[in-house]
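Fold this sequence, please.
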Amino acid sequence: MKEAIRNWISRFNVTSSATQLEDSHIRKTNPLHDGGVFLNFSLSASGYRALEIPENQIPSEKAFLDGLKTRTDITEDNLGVWEPEFLEQIDALIIVADSHISIATSEKNRIIREISEFAIIVFVQKGKILRNASGIGIEHFGYADGVSQPNFLTNDDSPASQWDDNGALLKTLLVPESNQVDIETFGSYFVFRKLEQNVKKFKEKETELSMQFNMSSDEDYGILNRRGKSNKELAGAKIVGRFEDGTAVTNHSDEFGITREDQLENDFDYRDDTQGLKCPFHAHIRITNPRQDVSNDFAKSVRLTRRGIPYNDIGRDEHDLESDQPEDGVGLLFMCYQSSIERQFEFIQQAWANHGEIGPGNFVGQDAIIGQGPNATIKSLPGQWNTDDDRQNVPTEFRDFVTMKGGEYFFTPSIGFLRGL
């Protein structure tokens, strides 16, 4: 049986990083380019052992070897609310993606038929990209998602004036593999987390927060923009760090009116907002990537390359984010690559998102989007954009909109390693 498993894995047609890079270059000039089916294969620590891989060839980081379920003292996840399938032993993760649902489904069914001869399918999780009216990817709360990604390979075509997000590939993403071949091969640690979103609760609290800053009718509420006019979208933007269309709140007090992905801003570093009067320190995009709030070298050393794919388990293909606000059954499949789970993902989740500690002893408040566990730090928002006049406290209950439903730590090995099985 073990040999059958190893043989199947060795023949699995993983999509190479070279192919992905080539496809991304083609899409810059041909947005309709379809690179075809994407296939990815990752192993957990138990998966390596099930394949009887020698211990000296198993990725050695303690977090990976322990597994996500044993790291709740760091992540502060509540295993009591996990979906039961994720509490089982998970040895491997296969990702199938395609721009055509029918093709992805066909590939998924083919893989299940083949591996059912020697493996138990623990869980099949579907995901589908959500887009707003402009075609920009969003999550279920309605905000543009996945805007800021590190550039690992070469300098960006457009030079950065504030935030240079070019990183060191080997330091932040890749891990040398131990193997029995002469060539040098690399893999990467992979984190998978299923995050359920309570859309109704978030939208209700977002509205209450706006009304708190400007006591008026339901039709006219919100904290004030730079012109002193009520702006009902600004409170949510200060919590997230961007308006729903992706406009960075550190640069604008109103939505810029973004209609194309190339209008999304990432070249900023909060140098013009050192007191957090435009974008609070606890805003989601600031606390998880504080840029110059910490040293540049440190900020870049913990950077993740991540992807969030929305999921919808409630039996409807789509839902209207304005009128249909689910309380459960929808959310985000969070996935990230890094060279160290402990130094990157777990540090960001524990120190920054959960504890809100940007620098030793500097507690700014928990991330209201992905923060887990208790946090007593009082968060505050300025009553008006870029002024500390009439500063008011954000209600401490503005949290608990996202519930971790399960996941695991994996390692994505090189194609060479897989072929060698």
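Residues 72-89+127-416 form one domain. The first helix runs from residue 2 to 11.
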